[in-house]
Specification:
- With 742 residues, the protein is mostly beta strands.
- The chain is built from no helices and 65 strands.
- Strand 41 (460-468) and strand 42 form a beta hairpin.
- The N and C termini lie far apart (226 Å).
- It comes from Apteryx owenii.
- This is Fibronectin type III domain containing 7.
């Protein structure tokens, strides 16, 4: 106890006190009233006080060893002793004069040592107490009571070194006291220990699963005496633990597609409770894997996947790049979707159960084949070229146009929705297909084709024949099927056509004197060929429309005509049984000599072109004027009359006689068949020009016959001699012979 003096243990023999005289100042020897032990390591001594003593020296001796303790008054206690040991106790009084002799000894034995307890709570309603054997102990007493004083105390006496208290309150702090007693029933030191029972398993465990975070919130009712709690979620492969001092805890990092057993254990300084009855927690299924996407020819997407643990059903979401989304709900592992060409679909598969939706797995994007350019049109540009156009289609990055026939394939690649196929064979049926390509999906091989025929081949003109003046026939090589040929003659005069499905045709009514360029084309439902090479064609020159014959003299006739289109030179001919007169000239007139008077002529003209083409032109017949009479003579018929006599060229010719003088002009017209004519009352003494000409049918007078000049005198029989006269006409020169008048 506090204030107890210090003790010292000496390991030496006690001195032998001599019987010498003690100083009169030393105190008296004290007398021990009693010595006893309450603690296993000390003995308490009681004595009567000694006058004059200021302190006392207590000595406890055990064999050769002793322990001394100085105290000031009674009682005094010697400590540091061994338990269950018999000691001899003496006491001395002390003052300033010294110490007294030892008192008569008393024997006292220390009580038993307290058992050192080892305490635990093996269950929530029990406490186990154990200890080691205590020296000289015959038995033990152990008592237990709630530390808060509630309830009754439990006490057990035993000779064993352990015992268990049961039916205790869980999580409650108990005070345990134990001591040993010897064979005399003397109790030894006691040992006190506070022990709490372990907590009871928590009740009303609730598990709330968060599917989005794969976490579980576990909660429970608080348990008496529990300081902390542990939540354990375990499956076959993994154990997750959460510790807390509250009544709820979050268990993170749960795995999808797993089934956990969740239980809670309460803890305090005594130990842990039993686990609660496990709560079964089934997490959300994992995202389906092994997703495959297949597209068949009918535009159906087949999405399939592998099944997942605890997946009750599946939902497939398919969202196209235009924002439209569809889904499929199934308990199987595949779904069918209608797809369109040229779209990119974003596909995700979720599994579901009562816990919720699986996490988002891989999002697959699937691009369908680009659409086909099925509305393409082919336009014939030429016999060997087709221009193919179409509307742009969804998903296509490039296009390939293929034109196939029995000889091979012609390809055209472009990013534009148009392509020109050249170097094709004319008049050939091609199977044309427009394929669309994308870098992701490649080509759409299901595109439909069309048969398109190229335009006919150009015909080759082999021959042109002139069947008549304005009729020509063309012949060509027919090298097309079901083609119609159109031949065109083109010139300054205009266009002329003929059409045939064979290999020849005829153009009529071509104008004369024209130059044409003749070409042919072939036309079919596929289109029109390029024109053939042109062949020049020249029609014969035109016959002059107007032709005029003017008799200049009896042997010379002037022929003039209008210009004949296309003619460069002309050949005119007057022909009769008596002979022919011909003239070849560049002009549009000609003088023909050697004409026989009174003769019927046929008139013909040939118009000759620069290249030598000739047109034979026939005109109305021409009759030369009747011959002038010969032997014209004058005879006097009295004083004032004259007879003009001549020799007729033909018997039935009628003649006109004209006399021209200064005193007047005179005319007579005898009856047909006569060869003379009488003029009366003609003045004499004048010079007359006498002309005898054949009469024309129209009553016109010819100026072709020669004039004879006569002098008519008024006396004698001779009228005078004619004189040679030269007559000048505008077109020719006529010489009049000498004429005598009898």
């Amino acid at each position: 106890p506090a204030g107890r003096p210090h003790s010292t243990l000496h390991r030496a023999q006690l001195p032998n006190f001599s019987m010498s005289v003690i100083s009169l100042l030393a105190p008296d020897i004290p007398v021990i009233d009693q010595a006893y032990s309450k603690l296993s390591n000390s003995i308490t001594v009681e004595w009567r006080a000694v006058p004059g003593a200021t302190s006392y020296l207590l000595t406890a001796q055990d064999g050769d060893s002793f322990i001394e303790t100085t105290v000031t008054n009674s009682p005094g206690t010697v400590t540091g002793l061994k338990a269950a040991t018999l000691y001899r106790i003496t006491i001395r009084s002390i003052n300033s004069g010294g110490r007294s002799q030892p008192s008569p000894s008393r024997k006292a034995k220390t009580v038993l040592a307290a058992p050192i307890l080892s305490v635990s709570s093996p269950s929530c309603n029990s406490i186990a107490v154990s200890w080691k054997a205590v020296y000289m102990a015959a038995g033990f007493s152990v008592s237990l009571m709630r530390s808060d004083g509630l309830g009754r105390m439990l006490k057990e006496n035993t000779t064993n070194t352990s015992l268990i208290f049961t039916d205790l309150d869980p999580g409650t702090l108990y005070t345990i006291k134990a001591y040993a007693w010897n064979v005399n029933g003397m109790p030894g030191d006691d040992f006190t220990y506070n022990q709490r029972t372990s907590p009871k398993a928590p009740a009303d465990v609730q598990v709330a699963f968060n599917s989005g975070t794969l976490r579980a919130i576990v909660s429970w009712m608080p348990t008496e005496g529990a300081l902390t709690y542990s939540v354990i979620a375990s499956n076959r492969l993994l154990k997750l633990k959460c510790n807390t001092s509250s009544t709820s805890c979050m268990v993170p990092s749960l795995q999808c597609g797993s089934e956990y057993s969740v239980f809670v254990i309460a803890h305090n300084d005594a130990g842990s409770s039993k686990p609660t009855v496990a709560v079964n927690l089934r997490t959300i299924p994992c995202a389906p894997g092994s997703i495959s996407i297949e597209e068949d020819e009918t535009g159906i997407l087949l999405v399939s996947w592998s099944s997942v643990n605890f997946g009750r059903y599946y939902v497939v979401f398919v969202k196209s790049d235009d924002g439209l989304e569809v889904h499929c709900n199934t308990s199987h592992t595949q779904c069918h979707f209608q797809s369109d060409c040229g779209f990119t679909y974003f596909i995700s598969v979720f599994a579901y159960n009562k816990a919720g939706q699986s996490p988002l797995g891989d999002v697959f994007n699937y691009t369908t084949a680009p659409c086909c350019a099925s509305d393409f049109s082919a336009v014939v540009v030429s016999s060997d070229t087709l221009q193919v156009t179409w509307s742009p289609v969804r998903g296509a990055e490039t296009y390939e146009t293929r034109a196939a026939d029995w000889t091979g394939v012609v390809l055209c690649n472009d990013t534009a929705p148009a392509c020109t196929l050249s170097a094709l064979r004319c008049s050939t049926q091609y199977n044309i297909t427009v394929y669309s390509f994308s870098e992701v999906r490649g080509s759409n091989k299901s595109c439909a084709s069309k048969y398109v025929a190229t335009a006919p081949c150009s015909p080759e003109i082999k021959n042109i024949s002139k069947d008549a003046l304005s009729v020509i026939s063309m012949y060509w090589q027919s090298n097309n099927d079901e083609a119609t040929y159109i031949v065109t003659a083109r010139g300054e005069a205009g266009l002329w056509h003929c059409t045939s499905s064979g290999n020849s045709c005829t153009i009529i009514n071509l104008p004369c004197g024209s130059v044409f360029s003749v070409s042919a084309i072939a036309r079919s439902p596929a289109g029109q060929s390029l024109p053939s090479y042109s062949v020049p064609l020249e029609t014969a020159p035109c016959c002059p429309n107007d032709l005029t014959l003017t008799q200049v003299t009896q042997s010379v006739t002037n022929i003039s005509w209008s210009v004949g289109m296309g003619a460069q030179t002309y050949v005119t001919t007057l022909e009769s049984p008596k002979g022919q007169a011909k003239c070849h000239t560049l002009q549009n007139y000609c003088l023909l000599g050697c004409i026989t008077c009174g003769t019927n002529y046929t008139v013909s003209l040939k118009a000759v072109s620069e290249t030598g083409l000739t047109s034979s032109c026939t005109y109305q017949g021409y009759s030369s004027s009747a011959c002038c009479p010969s032997g014209v003579k004058l005879y006097r018929l009295g004083n004032n009359g004259i007879r003009v006599h001549w020799r007729a060229s033909e018997e039935m010719t009628t003649y006109n006689t004209d006399l021209y003088g200064s005193k007047g002009n005179f005319t007579c017209a005898p009856h047909s068949g006569l060869s003379h004519c009488d003029i009366t009352e003609i003045p004499c003494g004048d010079v007359y020009s006498v002309v005898v000409t054949p009469a024309t049918a129209k009553g016109l007078k010819l100026t072709l016959c020669p004039k004879n000049i006569y002098s008519v005198t008024c006396s004698g029989s001779s009228v005078g001699m004619g004189k040679s006269t030269e007559y000048i006409n505008s077109k020719s020169i006529v010489f009049i012979k000498h004429v005598s008048i009898i």
